[in-house]
Structure formats: C-alpha cells, structure tokens
Amino acid sequence: MSKLEELINQLCPDGVEYVKLGEVVSYEQPTKYLVESTDYNDDFTTPVLTAGQSFILGYTDETTGIYNATVDNPVIIFDDFTAAFKWVDFNFKVKSSAMKMLTANESKTTLRYIFHIMGYLNFTSDEHKRLWIGTYSNFPIPLPPLPVQEEIVRILDNMTSLTAELTAELTAELKARQKQYEYYRDSLLSFDEDNTQDGVRWMKLEDVAIFRNGKGHEKEIVENGRYIVVNSKFISTDGKVKKFSEQQLCPVYANDVLMVMSDLPNGKALAKCFYVEKDSVYSLNQRICALTSKNDTLINSRYFFYILNRNRMLLKYDNGVDQTNLKKSDILNLVIPVPTLEEQQRIVDILDRFDKLCNDISEGLPAEIEARKKQYEYYRDKLLTFKEKEA
C-alpha cells in the first residue's frame, strides 16, 4: 500500500469535503502592479508577465509597484478573461488589468495543491467576460486533509519535474533534427543558376503550374460543414485551426500546393505551403492560392511543394514594415529549378523522412513530447478524483 493510500484510509476513508474554490483562495487586483511603460528591454531586470502562453512579455526598469513573489512566497496569476494561469515565484509586474493574483488559505490548503487542482479543472473560455467572481471561484473542488494534499503535491511535483526534464531532452533532440532537416532541405534545393547542373532546367512558375485564387468564406462558415476551409492560420499551424463550410466555393484537389499570399511584417506564414493529399476535403479561402502542376512528367508534386514552401525569392517581398500581399504575378514570375524526375524523387524521399519525424504529431519526437504531458494529466486527474463525503 502506498503512502497516499495509507493517508486516505487513515484520514478520510469515507470521502472528502468539497468546497467552492473561492472559499479557500483569495485574489488581489493588479492595479498597483501595472507597468507604466511598454518600452521593454532585455537588459532590464523586472519581468512583465501575462497569464497566457507568452508568459514573459518583456523586462522593465521600473522600480515601484513590483509584486514580491519568492520560492517561499509564490503566487498564481490568473487571466480573468481566458482562465489561463501561471505559477510565479519571482518578482514581477503585469500589463493587463484583467489579471488577478491568487493566494491560498494555508490553514485549509496549499497554493501548490490549488495549482494542480486548477489544471484538473481544465476550464477555458472564449467569452469576453470576467470569470473569477461569477464562474471560476464557484467551482467545487475536493479538499482532503492537509497531509493528503501534501502527498498528492509531492507525487505530482515529482512527475512534473521528470516530465520537464524528459520534455527538455526531447525538445532539444527535436530542435537538432529540425536544424538537420533545414540543412538538408537548403542543400538539396540549392542549384546554381549560372552553372546549370546536368538535367536541371530553370523555369518560370507560369510555365509549369496553373494558378487559382481562393474565395471569401465568411458567410459560409458553419459548425460541422463538409469542407475544411483553408486559411493562413490553418496552414501556418499545420492544420490545427479548422473552420468548416457546406459550400466548396473554391475546390482543391489531390497534389495541389496551397500557398499563403498575405501576412503581417516578419510573419511566419507568408509563402508557407500546404500539400493536398485528397480530393473533396478542402475549400480555399481568400488570400490563399492553389497551384497545380501542368505536367506530372515534368515535376513531382511533392518536389513542387518543397521548392515553393517559404521560398526565399517570395519572402524578399516582406519589407518588415507593412503587411505583405503577394500578387499573382509575383508568384507566377518565380523561377524555380527543375531537375530530372529521378533527382526530384531522391530529394523528396529524403525530405519526406525528415518532415515526418519533425512534424507529424502522431509519430516521432512531437508525439513523445505530447505523451509525457498526457501521462502527467492522467495521473493528476486520477489522484484528484475523490468520493464526496456525505453531509
């Protein structure tokens, strides 16, 4: 029998009390900790935080209105609009007036236990309304005796530490593989136009591909449509952002290459491409183009995808100041190297292997990283599920 089981059998064999989160957690408004200037600089010392994914927005040299958090006196920062939260054990300032600082009633619970509980709640919101007072603080949570809470925290913190260590190793490996992939991609797709290698022709895109523009789907978006609408976010986040339409306003077909034509300055989506593997799945939104090879005996469609994806000659139109809008002529006047089909297939075979290892979430290193997170979440949810004690 584990120590946790012994504690539960000894201290709460008949179940545990459930209380509203707000009964054991206090909040403080961020007003006196708001940063005055967003002129951040990495040479400054005090971080400016958000509870969202970016976490550290920058560093400020302001010396007043600093929230004093330490390892022995930590705090949870909570975004009142999204319910995102972060653990903080260092001094900081904040940017958003929508943030709340949460602390625990230590006679009944520990802040670290609350932190794991908030993950267990797994609540998010896309409504633009304040969440803490009316919604989040009213969630019922299990409140076992303090020794049980402390043992749960010990187990989950150990798992968190191990997961972080393993994830760091896997992330480092993934970055190394991505660099290796980028090296081979750049090497394999670099051809000398002045000294043409055997069998390599330089051709304008208009001579080898058919261009089709997308159409606006704003009025056609539905919850469960037949077709996935391909927009810049869908392509730039590897297909994770999905919107649907009942109408296939702009059909695309297997082996088409789709390209983002507009992006913000220095963005990562401009000229990013998506390879279509099946018919009757996607419909093309505006500012996305579809390119179809005119001659399969001339260009391998996968090679076509790799040579066009974030092509440097298209990225040169990004001036770093204004939004870039590639024109049809910019794309069709692009000159690309066309080696023999045998050489194209050799290049594709190599890059496909690297692409699968680096980017396919169902296999390879990204899946390993995701599996570590799932493992923690499984044990967290299991440990924090209690029978409610009868009144």
Report on the architecture of this protein.
A hairpin with a 5-residue loop joins strand 5 (75-79) and strand 6 (85-88). By secondary structure, the chain is an alpha+beta fold. It contains 11 helices and 21 strands. 34% of the residues lie in helices and 20% in strands. The chain folds into 3 domains: 1-15 and 145-199 and 340-391; 17-143, Adenine-n6-DNA-methyltransferase TaqI, Chain A, domain 2 (Alpha-Beta Complex), CATH 3.90.220; 201-338, Adenine-n6-DNA-methyltransferase TaqI, Chain A, domain 2 (Alpha-Beta Complex). Helix 4 (146-188) packs antiparallel against helix 10 (341-359).
Number of helices: 11
**What portion of residues belong to β-strands?**
15-25%
Overall body shape: elongated
What number of structural domains do the residues give? 3
Structural key phrases:
single chain; alpha+beta; 4-stranded antiparallel beta sheet; 3 domains; Adenine-n6-DNA-methyltransferase TaqI, Chain A, domain 2; 391 residues; 34% helix
